[in-house]
């Protein structure tokens, strides 16, 4: 059922993932173990030019949650940076200035544009940074991030609002609409229809000449940050030359884990 956003714009009312999917998030443990077992294969992923990558954690998570991913990207030769802002307690507006300073510090320290990899809420931050500081951002990769449509369709809505002090219904339309639109830099959204935290439809961007979706079959929301198929896809996207963008090749060793690309 469409609902009024408060500015005359009709949005489809979406539901958060079911309780069954939420409980199934426990399978993230197996996704992590799969990455450990397949680490020799993962190290065969495409390698890029070693440019800086800033990794942003999800709601309630800290840099500890992204440590396995950051270690993997370092093994591939990238200059990888944690966000260094403690536990992510939410707040798109509250965190904007801090994130801008962190991005600026990485950009100035390396002298290069920075790729942003954001998990869940971290991906929303990444898209916001790209909108407001595109001169410092090389590209963005989001993992299960709710940035388009009814972004309240998440099982973390109440937690976000309580911790951040920001009501999702009060997010300004002039901020919400651009987050779900075309980015000024190449963008990739990685998500799963079996996400138990975020309704996958809120992570589905409009494909274009420099933006695409990569759907990972049967992945959990928590597992997106450690799932071997997700890690391979991240490595592949980061390996693209600066300023270039080509569709993701689903024929690699984890091809079975990716759904067919759709518009």
TrEMBL record:
GO terms for biological process: lipid catabolic process. It comes from the Bacteria. InterPro entries: AB_hydrolase_fold, Lipase_EstA/Esterase_EstB. It holds the Pfam family Lipase_2. GO terms for molecular function: hydrolase activity. PANTHER family: SLL1969 PROTEIN. This is Lipase (Class 2).
């Amino acid at each position: 059922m469409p609902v009024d956003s408060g500015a005359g714009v009709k949005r489809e009312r979406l539901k958060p993932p079911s309780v069954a999917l939420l409980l199934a998030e426990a399978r993230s443990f197996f996704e992590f173990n799969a990455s450990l077992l397949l680490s020799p294969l993962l190290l065969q992923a495409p390698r890029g030019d070693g440019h800086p990558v800033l990794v942003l954690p999800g709601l309630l998570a800290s840099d500890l949650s992204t440590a396995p991913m950051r270690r993997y990207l370092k093994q591939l030769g990238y200059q990888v940076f944690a966000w260094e802002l403690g536990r992510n307690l939410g707040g798109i507006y509250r965190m904007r200035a801090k994130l801008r300073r962190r991005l600026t510090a990485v950009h100035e320290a390396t002298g290069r544009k920075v790729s942003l990899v954001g998990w869940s809420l971290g991906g929303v931050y990444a898209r916001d940074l790209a909108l407001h500081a595109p001169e410092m951002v090389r590209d963005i990769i989001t993992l299960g991030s709710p940035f388009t449509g009814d972004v309240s369709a998440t099982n973390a809505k109440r937690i976000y609002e309580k911790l951040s002090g920001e009501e999702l219904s009060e997010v300004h339309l002039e901020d919400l609409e651009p987050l779900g639109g075309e980015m000024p830099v190449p963008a990739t959204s990685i998500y799963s229809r079996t996400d138990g935290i975020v309704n996958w439809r809120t992570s589905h961007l409009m494909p274009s000449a420099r933006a695409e979706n990569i759907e990972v079959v049967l992945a959990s929301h928590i597992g997106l940050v450690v799932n071997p198929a997700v890690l391979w896809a991240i490595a592949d996207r980061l390996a693209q030359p600066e300023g270039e963008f080509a569709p993701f090749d689903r024929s690699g060793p984890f091809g079975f884990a990716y759904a067919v690309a759709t518009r």
